[in-house]
Write a structure and sequence with these properties.
- This protein is α/β, with parallel strands linked by helices.
- It has helices spanning 19-30, 44-51, 67-80, 104-132, 153-172, 191-204, 208-219, 228-239; strands at residues 10-13, 34-38, 57-60, 86-89, 135-140, 178-185, 250-253.
- It folds into two domains: 10-187 and 227-259, Rossmann fold (3-Layer(aba) Sandwich); 189-225.
- A seven-stranded parallel β-sheet has the order 3-2-1-4-5-6-7, sandwiched between helices.
- The model has no long low-confidence stretch (mean pLDDT 97).
- Bound molecules: nicotinamide-adenine-dinucleotide.
- Nicotinamide-adenine-dinucleotide (NAD) is lined by residues 15-21, 38-41, 63-65, 90-93, 113-114, 140, 142, 185, 187-188, 190-193.
Length: 260
């Protein structure tokens, strides 16, 4: 496998202005893919970092709650560069609350961003992938797509749903050169998790360091965060020829979390 084996491929990564999405975008760029970034907040430094690897970038600020904006993103990529070869459904949010107190609008947002957006991106990229008879769809689920935790009803429901969508997509493309798999990280120290560490420190009146150790010790036997670069390396593997017949898998990288 040459280092730039993804040269000429177009990769669209949702929610790639930060965290895991940005890490995966950098790994795919390192392997030569041109990158379409999406997400909120500042995207310029991400674009500069990726362009410095010698690949092209585009940015589209589609809100993953809005199907028409998602369609516009896929159409814009097609008009500018062509059809998407690698789709990484990564955008996601979290909300922590008991079911009785879970705000309905938060439930709707978590389900829209963490699950429904992947249905929309998938249905709009599949025709182009079928024409080329090649494609990779990577759904960034979570260990919470395999097991549950209290107070994360919407997130756990969405991620279990995303693992289900992954299997159906894999079956519907099983005789083609298109594969679809889910990646299921345990704790990764991104802004999404830092918020949970900060909330724990505040509620328990402990230091950030103590809250971080507590968070890990509750769930992750390795007591180590997975990194965006490690997840990026797994994404690159799944895009390689060695991944040609990996289909419908939910691959956890979770420090032993789901093994318990
Ligand atoms: P993050 O908060 O660092 O990044 C989330 C990204 O999604 C950002 O780019 C943000 O702008 C974007 N985003 C949020 N709402 C959006 C919307 N409505 N439209 C478009 N973009 C939107 O979070 P992260 O930890 O990197 O999470 C990325 C994915 O990985 C999520 O799906 C998350 O559920 C999953 N995940 C994270 C962890 C972890 O421990 N951090 C573990 C398992 C799974």
């Amino acid at each position: 496998m040459s280092e730039k084996f993804l040269s000429g491929k177009i990769a669209l990564i949702t929610g790639s202005t930060s965290g895991i999405g940005l890490g995966i975008a950098k790994s795919l760029a390192h392997a030569g893919a041109d990158i379409v970034l999406n997400g909120f907040g500042d995207h310029r430094s991400a674009e500069q970092d990726i362009q410095s690897m010698g690949v092209k970038t585009l940015f589209h600020g589609a809100d993953m709650r809005k199907p028409l904006e998602i369609q516009d993103m896929v159409d814009s990529v097609k008009k500018s560069w062509g059809t998407v070869d690698i789709l990484v459904n990564n955008a996601g949010i979290q909300h922590v609350s008991s079911i009785e107190n879970f705000p309905t609008e938060k439930w709707d947002d978590v389900l829209a961003i963490n699950l429904s957006s992947s249905f929309h991106t998938t249905r709009w990229v599949l025709p182009g992938m079928r024409e080329k008879n090649w494609g990779r769809i990577l759904n960034i689920a979570s260990v919470h797509g395999l097991v549950a935790s209290a107070n994360k009803s919407a997130y756990v429901a969405a991620k279990h749903g995303l693992v289900g969508l992954t299997k159906v997509t894999a079956l519907e493309t099983a005789t083609t050169g298109i594969t679809c798999n889910a990646i299921c990280p345990g704790w990764v120290l991104t802004p999404l998790v830092q918020q949970q560490v900060d909330a724990k420190a505040k509620t328990m009146e402990i230091s950030i360091d103590a809250a971080t150790k507590l968070l890990l010790s509750e769930k992750e036997p390795s007591m180590q965060f997975t990194t965006p670069a490690e997840l990026g390396a797994l994404a690159v593997f799944l895009c390689s020829t060695a991944g040609n017949n990996v289909r419908g898998v939910a691959w956890n990288m979770d420090g032993g979390w789901a093994a318990q």
